[in-house]
Design goal:
heterodimer; A: alpha/beta; Rossmann fold; 2 domains; five-stranded parallel β-sheet; about 10% strand; elongated; B: alpha+beta; 4 helices
Chain lengths: ~375, ~160
């Protein structure tokens, strides 16, 4: 807590994290888009495929994590799964691995019990839900069982991790391995159906796949396999599934080159875009951010900065670089820390524009901070 | 007279090949090696001074002896230089196009994806996947290889101009 700054926590953070993702600052248009998306996902049972494009450093990951937070507030209507597209993959199996490793296993275990109590025709593996991937039943049961060794092997089996021995397979109770994209789609489909099984209110699985632009670095064959895998997975679920693919690069219309025609034709017409901030939006961003961290109401919206100091800070960045939330936080963080260090905690006056100017005067400041993919997130 | 177009690789000069045409291509005239870019003035211009010629002496010059050879070779060299220049310009346009796409994208891309972007946005260049890969592989000062077939735009600070 920073009592003298009237802040309950440090407001500037540049690495996306779950706790910080509960906060949304500025970018009203994107906020509206997210709220609309959230509403649509809950309102209609039909599945949806959504695209999120962000320019570099515009907070794509933060946006996804914020969406995950919003999904978590829907009392089980939306089950969010946040996964990151692995780098330079060799096929759909690795995408499967990324998604499945993030599934809520406790919840799936409970769902399996629910399926079991509704099923009276013998073994659960005979349930139509698992007809293409019967091994999922025993793997989920093994995870639920509590035996750490079995659970580890079951997880490994489900995420198609190589290296499982025949003994491991016997321990889990499965007779085959997930080796092909088709096996992976079948397993993923069974798990998705399990997650959305007869819930009241109806449940949807929201699969968010971050860094999907990495598909642009793959050979055509692998790229086609991944796109086809996602398309097949999506097609298996007319209802109950929302897939959000997030991409980050400089040109929004390049999205078209990364997706197959099948995926493009299934994508919702309205995508979410996070483009660079204008100066007005940047000031609004700082205002919102500080407001989130207030200990008590303060008429001075910019405190511990003066409003003119915030304007100076934004102007200074805009003159040399693109205005992004991350960059705003980096510079504001620098100014606030430096001024605190110089003043000490007893001086509670506002940071002045002159102070900002002096603290940002060093031309080497931010030399490493360029508009590049390395800073995207 | 001995006129032979040697294979492209026969030259000693380390030159950049522009889509099949190399600056090092040459012919032999009476045992003297001449090329479109390194030849007697009479093969370049209408006016020339044989006394200044570094290739042949006026008394024994095979080109002076055979005016048809001189005119044919001159015409051939002119055509060659024009073609070379056209190819060079096309290559430069291709470099610019690929570079601008990579720069705007801001992330590494596989050459097959990049080729589709360039083909759609610069149809006049009539690029193929192979030509995009080749141009990037031949210009490491502009394009940085990050993995097999994957390139990114080399930032200006590292860029040799």
């Amino acid at each position: 807590m920073y009592e003298h700054l009237n802040l309950k926590a440090w407001p500037f953070q540049v690495v996306p994290d779950s706790e910080f993702a509960m906060i949304w600052a500025g970018r009203r248009q994107t906020k509206k888009q997210l709220e609309r998306l959230l509403w649509k996902m809950q309102f209609a049972p039909k599945s949806g495929l959504h695209l999120l494009w962000a320019n570099f450093g515009m907070g794509k990951t933060h946006t996804l994590l914020h969406l995950r937070h919003l999904c978590q507030q829907t009392q089980g209507r939306l089950i969010p799964v946040y996964a990151v597209m692995p780098k330079r993959i060799s096929g759909f199996l690795e995408v499967h691995r990324a998604i499945v490793s993030q599934l809520p296993w406790d919840f799936l275990g409970e769902q399996l019990v629910k399926v079991g109590s509704n099923w009276s025709s013998g073994s659960l593996t005979l349930h139509p839900m698992f007809s293409k991937s019967p091994g999922v039943v025993n793997a989920v049961l093994a995870i639920r069982g509590g035996d750490a060794e079995k659970a580890t092997a079951a997880r490994q089996w489900l995420i198609a991790q190589p290296g499982l021995t025949a003994r491991d397979l016997r321990a889990v109770g499965v007779t085959y391995r997930i080796k092909t994209p088709e096996d992976a789609i079948n397993a993923l489909t069974a798990l998705t159906r399990l997650a959305t099984f007869k819930s009241n209110p109806p449940t949807k699985l929201v699969v968010m796949l971050d860094e999907y632009q990495r598909i642009g670095e793959l050979k055509s064959r692998v790229m086609s396999e991944v796109n086809a895998g996602l398309h097949s997975y999506y097609n298996e679920h007319p209802n109950g599934l929302e897939v959000i693919l997030s991409v980050s690069f400089g040109r929004e219309d390049n999205v078209a080159y990364l997706l197959s025609d099948e995926l493009k034709s299934r994508a919702e017409p309205q995508s979410i875009s996070l483009d660079l901030l204008s100066q007005v939006e940047a000031i609004e961003f700082i205002r919102d951010l500080l407001a989130h961290f207030r200990l008590r109401q303060d008429e001075r919206w910019a405190y511990p900065f003066s409003p003119e100091a915030v304007e100076m800070l934004v102007k200074h960045i805009a003159e040399a670089k693109a205005l992004t939330p991350r960059r705003l936080m980096l510079y504001a963080n620098h100014v606030l820390l430096e001024s605190q260090l110089a003043r000490g905690p007893d001086d509670t006056s506002e940071i002045t524009p002159q102070e900002v100017k002096e603290l940002l005067a060093d031309p080497r400041l931010g030399a490493m901070d360029v508009d590049s993919p390395d800073m995207a997130g | 007279m001995d006129e032979i177009w040697p294979p492209e690789t026969d030259g000693e000069e380390a030159t950049v090949s522009w889509a099949g045409i190399s600056r090092s291509e040459h012919i032999w005239v009476d045992g003297v090696r001449i090329s479109p870019y390194d030849c007697p003035d009479c093969l370049k211009w209408e006016e020339f001074d044989c006394d200044q010629c570094a290739f042949f002496s006026p008394e024994t010059c095979p080109l002076l002896r055979d005016l048809f050879l001189m005119l044919d070779t001159r015409t051939f060299f002119v055509l060659y230089r024009e073609r070379f220049e056209a190819q060079r310009k096309r290559q430069q346009r291709l470099i610019r196009a690929v570079r601008s796409e990579l720069q705007a994208h801001g992330r590494p891309l596989h050459y097959t994806v990049l080729a589709r972007m360039v083909a759609d946005r610069h149809p006049k260049l009539r690029v193929s996947e192979r030509s995009v890969l080749k141009i990037m592989a031949h210009h490491p000062e502009v394009f940085e290889k990050v993995a097999e077939g994957v390139y990114r735009y080399r930032k200006a600070s590292k860029h040799r101009r």
